[in-house]
Design brief:
Elements lengths: L1 H31 L3 E3 L6 E3 L2 H22 L5 H23 L3 H28 L29
Antiparallel strand pairs: 1-2
Helix pairs in contact: 1-2, 1-4, 2-3, 2-4, 3-4
Length: 159
């Protein structure tokens, strides 16, 4: 049941993120023109395709679901999950800046990363924080000398 709710929350975040990225992509294209970035292994900058932005958002959401599941198994799950997401977002932001052909493209790519991260991380953080806290298992010891016999009211316990 918990895994199904994780998938449901992740899916809702991904759908909202894809919608927001598509809107941001068209706004960026209308304001700044085509977003040009150097893809790994390409000869020069190429236009960032809308399909690439959508696929990247979905892949990021799936990775987020996996990270949420793993971090929910840890003692301080919510702060760990958020920290991993922030580190990932900063690293992706640095990649966007280095790949962008112009400063405006770098800004728009980072805005798209933020617009994608907010609904996904928000939904998954809500799920992670709703999970019960992980507690350390306690062990009980039984004293071998202790008697478990019960004395009746008219009997006196034996020493």
């Amino acid at each position: 049941m918990a895994f199904a709710s994780l998938l449901r929350n992740g899916f809702m975040g991904i759908v909202a993120a894809v919608g927001a990225v598509v809107i941001t992509y068209f706004i960026a294209d209308a304001i700044s023109g085509p977003l040009m970035a150097a893809q790994p292994g390409a000869d020069g900058p190429q236009e960032v395709p809308l399909g690439g932005a959508v696929v990247g958002t979905v892949i990021g959401g799936v990775v987020g679901i996996v990270v949420a599941y793993i971090s929910s198994r840890m003692r301080r799950s919510t702060p760990i999950f958020v920290l991993i997401c922030v580190i990932g977002l900063v690293l992706y932001g640095l990649f966007a800046w280095s790949a962008a052909d112009s400063q405006s493209t770098g800004i728009w790519l980072n805005i798209m990363h933020l617009v994608a991260a907010v609904p996904i991380v928000g939904q998954l953080t809500r799920w992670v924080s709703s999970r019960p806290a992980v507690t350390k298992a306690t062990t009980t010891t039984v004293d071998a000398d202790a008697s478990t016999e019960v004395a009746s009211a008219d009997e006196t316990p034996a020493d």
